[in-house]
Amino acid sequence: MSVVQVALPVPILRLFDYLPPNTHGAQPVIGGRVRVPFGKRKIIGIVVGFQERSDLPETQLKQIIEVLDTKSLYPPPLWRLLHWAAGYYHLPVGEVLKQALPVLLRHGKPAQEKPLWQWIITKKGQTTTLESLKFAPKQQQALAVLRHQPIYRHQVAEKNLNNAVLQVLRNKKLCDLREYHQPQQQSDWRTRFIIKGTQLKLNTDQTIAVGKIRNEDERYAAWLLSGITGSGKTEVYLSILENILARGKQALVLVPEISLTPQTTARFRERFEAPVDVLHSALNDKERFAVWQRARRGESAIIIGTRSALFTPLLQPGVIIIDEEHDSSYKQQEGWRYQARDLAVFRAREENIPIVMGSATPALETLHNVRRGKYRQLDLTRRAGSAKPALQQLVDIKGQQLIGGLAPVLISKMRQHLQADNQVLLFLNRRGYSSALLCHDCGWVAECQRCERYYTLHKKQRQLRCHYCNSQCLLSNQCSHCGSTHLLPVGVGTEQLEQHLCTLFSGIPVSRIDRDTTSRKGALEQHLANVHRGGAHILVGTQMLAKGHHFCDVTLVSMLNVDSALFSTDFRAAERFAQLCTQVAGRAGRAGKQGEVLLQTYHPEHPLLQTLLHQGYLAFAQQTLLERQSVMLPPWTSHALFRAQDRDNHQAAEFLQQLRKLLEANPLKDTSVWLMGPVPALQPKLCGLWRWQLLVQHASRKRLQQFLNNALPLVKRLPAAHKVMWTLDVDPIES
Q1: In whole numbers, what is the pLDDT of the chain averaged over residues?
Q2: Same-domain status, 223 and 369
């Protein structure tokens, strides 16, 4: 070995050659970290290979400064996944490998815990009288403490002792300093693993689903568990895990939102006498690192987390479960724009374990893969237990006098359900008090200059906030244009709705659950605990409430504004709305009580609403798949989106125009590649930057990748490439 190939977390699509350290200490290993010089900096990279010689003269190669790991940090299946992902998403492998590590490891923290050292008393120390040390009171005190218990080296100061005194006792052979070996915990949960809690009786659909998955739970298989809301998908997950955990295997469970982790974790801990760990961005770096270590050592039986938890190393992987697999939160929208659901399928295949993707509203891509035979579908067609399907109704609000966004018929229905000591859930996907602030005298509207979007009024904090760039300013009592004090809030947000509800239903507790009310740690859990206590209660919330929550006493659900999603230039808007509408409606009547769903709309005759109401989501999905096939849109084709942004609204468009000409002139260009743009993004200005995009489409995912591989090395030669910020998004879901 003469040259070490290192992947560095820098935006350069290549590996870097270094000479091994000129020491007799630890040597580099593939998958381990090394500290290397890079320009004037010292950075941490990952060793990816060795070769006999470099293309550069040996005199130009720098030496590795420090070897940080003697073992790979990545299990082989995860290592293969990350390398494949770097190629598929066209990113430097160093950046991808870095993102799969906890932050503390990226900063150089040892991967292995430092050994614990204990001061312990010896046999001689036990027989020596304390009186013999009366002229050395500090030694006498230390020996007395050691007779009661060992002392960790880091606890010496806490015990009012010091290491110098202990060392004197050691020289007298009265005590000794030894390494403390923590007992291996992974064997503990396996040997004492039991199933506890109440096992619900499975219905026919659930029994069939569990049986089919269990029959093939020792090898790779991709399952779509398609079940209507309230059909008991979680109980199916739990039943599947009984076999997996009994064999000493680990389970990785992905959920789309942090808000779903408390109830999911509670259900799993109620069922299994086994350690369950949670992994998401609300944890601090130290907590995330501890979970990463426990999972890697096999001490965690179940790891529940959001999309980045996919990259957690497991000692004995047994199954991957993706709950609400359709959710757009599984797609990372910044930096490395990966789709966690797709990478999870790849990892399951590499690990040779099953993967179960559950949803009441499967993504069209997932249903398309079922058609192609890549996934197998299992249907749960009826609600679990005695729960009945909710009754759904469209409420035409044209010409009606709304109170805080509520139609009279909805207010009447709410009174009926609350008087019966049931709960009501109102869905409004608008945070804040109102969506705009208008001057009644001159028509001025408060606007964020960085995004050219209206500010949202947050009345309680007396702030105007931009929900696109998070900028904010204090609320003024005067119009900045004409000086008038006649300022009017326009539109209804969750804050205003909560205010009206407290007036309309005095004495009934109202819980508003959105990003503003749950930002404080533990706030969401407190809100949910209040709801689960039962009794008449009104819940108001945004999408945080639409996904997977189980509210036993909610019998009435209403979406207050369904029209905003019915008319959109985004071809995925209809799919997202159908999923959201079905998920929100599914919160009603989940525990034996008859549920009702009211959808307020100005367009009750809209075909999408009629299809969802009378035929259900799967009928909508099949119809939409046919429509997309007729116009060759995903999942029938594959997309890659070049995005560029600048501050003058000129150079980004110029760069993408040059890029289009380059792609069209490429001698290896596939004639079936279709280019669209450059065009402004659906949100043209964001955070002070103007945004443009160029879409590349091909019917073959493989051919599209080949085309991008041929074109990307040429892009940086374009004159405008270094004047703008540009990115490539493979399989984009947002424009």
Answers
A1: 90
A2: yes
Q: Hunting for tokens 């070897």 — which residue is that?
A: 67
Q: How confident is the model at residue 589 (pLDDT cuts 50, 70, 90)?
A: confident
Global pTM reads: 0.85
The bridge status of strand 250-254 relative to strand 317-323 is parallel
Mean pLDDT of the 68-74 span: 93
∠ CA 727-92-643, nearest 5°, is: 5
* Residue 131 pLDDT > 80: yes
Domain membership flag for residue 331: yes
Which of 90, 99, 140, 182 is CA-nearest to residue 713? Answer: 90
Q: Which CATH number belongs to the domain containing residue 355 in this structure? A: 3.40.50.300
Three-state DSSP class for residue 109: coil
Out of 364-373, 515-524, 606-615, the most confident range is 364-373
All residues at 6 or more sequence positions from 565 whose CB lies less than 8 Å from its CB, including other chains? 573, 574, 576, 577, 580
**Rg for the chain, CA atoms, rounded:** 30
Same domain flag for 210 and 163: no
Q: What is the CATH number of the domain that holds 676?
A: 3.30.70.600
104: helix, coil or strand? helix
**Are 285 and 335 in the same domain?**
yes
- Torsion sign (Cα): 41, 44, 48, 52: positive
From 180, 207, 225, the end of a domain falls on 180
Range of the domain at 717: 638-730
Q: What are the structure tokens assigned to 655, written together?
A: 């760069």
The DSSP secondary structure of 189-254, one letter per residue, reads HHHS--B-SPPPPP-HHHHHHHHHHHHTTTS-EEEEEEE-TTS-HHHHHHHHHHHHHHTT-EEEEE
3-state class percentages of the chain: helix first, strand second, coil last, to nearest 5: 35, 25, 40
Residues in the chain, overall count: 735
Burial of 387 (0-12, 13-18, 19+ CB in 10 A): buried
Residues 6+ apart with CB under 8 A from 285: 102, 103, 104
More confident: 587 or 250: 250
Q: Are 54 and 25 in a shared domain? A: yes
How many domains are there within the chain? 5
CA–CA separation, 636 and 86 (whole Å): 24
Pick from 626, 654, 681: which residue ends a domain? 626
**What b-and-e string marks burial along 714-729, b requiring 16 or more CB atoms within 10 Å of the CB?**
ebeebebeebbebebb
CATH classification of the domain holding 22: 3.40.1440.60
Query: d(Cα 423, Cα 7) in Å, to the nearest integer?
Result: 55
Query: How far, in Å, are 541, 595, 616, 617 from residue 613 at the CA level?
Result: 22, 15, 6, 9
DSSP notation for 410-478 = HHHHHHHHHHTT-EEEEE----SSBSEEEETTT--B-EETTTTEEPEEETTTTEEE-TTT--EEEPPSS
Q: What percent of the chain is modeled with pLDDT above 70?
A: 97
CA 210, CA 362: separation in Å to the nearest integer?
Answer: 19
- pLDDT score, position 183: 54
Of 679, 733, 727, 671, the closest CA to residue 700 belongs to: 671
Residues 596 and 659 in one domain: no
Contacts of 512 (CB under 8 A, 6+ apart): 494, 495, 497, 498, 540, 541
How many Cα atoms are found within 13 Å in the side-chain-facing hemisphere of 461? 16
- Specify whether 602 is located in the same domain as 664: no
List beta partners, residue 727.
Answer: 643
Q: Which residues are registered as beta bridge partners of 724? A: none
**Of 143-157, 661-675, 690-704, the least confident:** 661-675
